[in-house]
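Collaborator request, handled under Task 6.
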Amino acid sequence: MREVDADLTTLDRAIINAFQGGFPVVERPFDPAAAALRDRGVEVTGTELCERVRELDEAGILSRFGALVNAEEIGGAASLVAMHAPEDRYEEIAETVNGFTEVAHNYEREHPHLNMWFVVSVADHPDPDKDGSDRIEEVLAEIEAVTGQETYNLPKQREFHVGAKFLVDGPVADGDVDLSDLGPDVSPSDRSTLTPAERDLVVEIQGGLPITETPYADVADALAADVAWTVETIKRFEREGKVRRVGVIPNHYALGYTENGMTVWDVPEDVLDEVGPAVADLSFVTHCYKRPRHAGVWEYNFFAMTHGRTEAESERRIAEVKSLMDEYWDVTESDWDTLFSTRILKKTGVRIADRAESNTT
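C-alpha cells returned to the collaborator:
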C-alpha cells in the first residue's frame, strides 16, 4: 500500500492541509493564499502556488480545485438506498441498478443481507404537486420492478456534519487556514430558486474552477458575465450553503486513505441530540447523519463515515467512536455495525445540472 504523503513535498503538504476550505473568493485568490502560507513558514508566491495546485490536480493528487456545490441546496433531492442482491445475481443486479442515470454512486459493502448501497439523485418532480422525494420513490419502484429486489430508502433526516478533510503530515497540520472572510460583503438572499444566470454559474463551476491566477474571471468569461457579479454570487452561494466550501478537494485514495468504514448505530432517541454533535466533532468523521430505521431489516438510525490509511487505523478510529458513544448510553454489540466498502460499482456526479435546471425560475 502506498504510504500517505510519501511522494509529496513540503509545499504539497501545506496546500493539502491548508486549503480544503476557506480559499479566498477574490479576483486573484492565489496571492492572499500564498501570503497565508508564508505567514506559516512556507515560502511561495501566488504564481508558484497556482502552478503547484495545477500540477497536483493533473497528477491526480487532487480530485479538483474550486467550489464544492451543495446539490441539496441547488434543487431536487437525493437519498441513500440499501438493497440485497443474491450472490448468484449480484453482477446482473449491479449492472441493472447502475444503468439508471439517477444512480450516482453504488458500492458493494460487507453486510450479511444489505450488500449493495447506492445514492439516487433526482431533479425536482415535474408535477408541481409533488417533490423530489416523490420522484425518488418512483425511481426505486422502477428499480424494484426490473430487479425483483426490495429497496430500503434511507433519506437524510438530520445532518450533523459534512466536512471530509484528509490531512497529511507536514505544515498546517490542523488545517486551520481560513480566508473565507476575504471577498465582497454580501448578504444571503431569501430565494430558494435560481435565476437562469445563477443556474448557468452552478453548471459552470460544478466540476471545479479553472486553475489559473484569475479563476473567477475565467468563469465570468466562459459565461459572458461580469467578473464582480461572478465573485459576489459565488461568495453569496457560500453564505447561503449552496456552496459548502471553496478550496482543494484531495483524492483521498491517492493520499492513502483507502479504508472506508460506514459505521451505523442504533442510538436511543433521547440521547441523539447530544450524540450527533459529539461524534461530528471527531476530526476523522467525514459525514454524520440521522436516517430512518426499517423494522425487522435495518435497526440503525445514525450513520458516521470514517476513513483510515490502514485497516488498523480505521479500526482504531471506529473504536474511538464507540468509546464516545459509551459516554451517552451502554452500547452493546447489537447496537452497532461497520460496513466496509469492498468494491466501487459506480461513481458519477449527482446530476447537478438537471437539479439546477428544475429549480430555475
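The cover message to the collaborator said: "The longest helix spans residues 132-147. Residues 171 and 197 are 40 Å apart (CA to CA). Please let us know whether this matches your experimental observations."
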